[in-house]
Write a structure and sequence with these properties.
There is one protein chain. The chain is α/β, with parallel strands linked by helices. The protein is built from ten helices and 18 strands. It has a nine-stranded parallel β-sheet with strand order 16-13-12-10-7-4-3-18-17. The chain is globular and about 55 Å long.
């Protein structure tokens, strides 16, 4: 975005060449240029005011946020060492039949014992909840250095000790806790982690937004910034140390539009977008150890069809232990095409839509040397029990008896007695 001002080339003449009229014209021309400059100065000031808004930098510098319209198309921070004894995690054996629950339901004084018991009785063996959500907010008081610097913890964030107690309660009911953390899709941490954010091309202290501020534009963590990797990997390592045996990643991608986005000059810049995201997932897997399963949520259509640009390629290949494609029929568009098969209005045909999409993803996985497990997201909101069961049946028929899935209702409301897993 930097601009280079090109000066005019002056042709100098010998003394005595100018006549009186020529000199008069030159004087009038200079007066005109001065007037024009006086007009441009306030206009430039207004333009700058529209583009730039200052934010105080925690290190005492001034950083700026620049609104980028969607139409325009370093040292590593280590986590704080823990002095508590680390539980020995056991990787979940067999399939995970999970359901999503808002984390606030697990932190209330009135623990949802009845709900969890009903879920276990219905055949569910895992519960998924957010520990770092799509807003970048942390729901537990992480002790890693990067997390402390990010100031991303919510006002009601639970302590790590309280998180351990919740984990133990779930384990006592035969439920595996799956903690989800969003990675680079994070509009909160960039304000306090300047070395980890995407900046504006030509303006390294400015914060890049994925749209204009008036249109809800948000900042992102930088997939090419080592400190962004360290922040997320540090959280995953901490959760593994606490005792989590399954961690779900989401938001492992670049923004959908990257006009004027700048990613710095770290050693990671030698990698392609696909390679740097693969490295991130691989490094995170190494950090959490073999006793912790890494699950990667990806858009369903990106897994087998299109919309792979934010991932630099097919996200199925990132190297997670398990992929979790979002196969909510309401997210699959008005028409689902795969091969010679077309399904009109997937939302009204949940069995056919999930069966077709899951089948296509399975074909893609079978072409890979190292094949991840599949754990699709299925839709529970706006559906009756019959439509929910149809989706479960479609996954079972596609994957086999050891199938996994996550049933999703953002409110955490389910009629477990009417859900048929087996």
């Amino acid at each position: 975005m930097s601009r280079k001002l090109k000066g005019r080339k002056l042709h100098r003449r010998r003394p005595g060449v100018f006549n009186r009229n020529t000199r008069r014209n030159a004087i009038l021309k200079n007066i005109g240029l001065v007037c024009l400059a006086l007009l441009l100065i306030p206009a430039g000031f207004l333009a700058a005011k529209f583009l730039v808004e200052d934010n105080p930098d925690p290190q005492g510098k001034q950083t700026s946020t620049v609104n980028v319209s969607a139409s325009s198309s370093p040292s590593t921070t280590a986590p704080t060492p823990t002095t508590t004894q680390k539980p020995i995690p056991q990787t979940p054996q067999g399939s995970l039949r999970a359901f999503y629950l808002p984390f606030s339901r697990l932190t209330q004084a009135d623990f949802p014992d009845a709900l969890l018991d009903d879920a276990a009785a219905a055949g569910f063996n895992a519960v998924l909840f957010d520990l770092k959500d799509e807003r970048g907010v942390l729901h537990y008081d992480s002790q890693t250095i990067s997390a402390q610097q990010s100031k991303a913890a919510s006002d009601d964030a639970v302590t790590t000790q309280r998180l351990k107690e919740i984990l133990q309660k779930l384990q006592g009911k035969g439920l595996t806790a799956v903690g989800r953390i969003f990675a680079f899709r994070d509009p909160t941490a960039p304000s306090n982690l300047p070395s980890a954010k995407i900046t504006l091309e030509g303006y390294p202290t400015y914060t890049w937004l994925d749209n204009s501020r008036d249109m809800g534009g948000k900042p992102w963590l930088n997939p090419y910034a080592p400190d962004a990797h360290s922040y997320i990997i540090g959280l995953a390592k901490e959760l593994s140390d606490i005792g989590f045996t399954s961690i779900m990643l989401d938001g492992v991608q670049f923004p959908n539009q990257t006009s004027r986005a700048a990613y710095g000059d770290s050693e990671l810049r030698s990698l392609s977008p696909l390679e740097v995201l693969k490295k991130f997932v691989g490094d995170l897997r190494t950090a959490v150890g073999e006793g912790c399963q890494v699950i990667h949520t990806i858009p369903g259509l990106s897994a087998f069809k299109d919309s792979t640009q934010p991932f630099g390629g097919n996200p199925v290949t990132f190297g997670a232990d398990t992929i979790a494609p979002i196969l909510l029929p309401s997210t699959l568009g008005n028409r689902l095409n795969a091969g010679e098969t077309t399904i009109t209005n997937p939302k009204e045909n949940p069995y056919d839509a999930v069966k077709l999409a899951a089948g296509q993803i399975k074909l893609r996985v079978q072409l890979m040397e190292q094949q991840p497990e599949m754990m699709p997201w299925l839709q529970a909101f706006d559906y009756n029990s019959q439509q929910i069961n149809q989706q479960i049946t479609a996954v079972k028929e596609t994957v086999g008896k050891d199938f996994s899935f996550t049933l999703y209702n953002p409110q955490g409301s389910y009629d477990f007695e009417a859900i048929n897993i087996e």
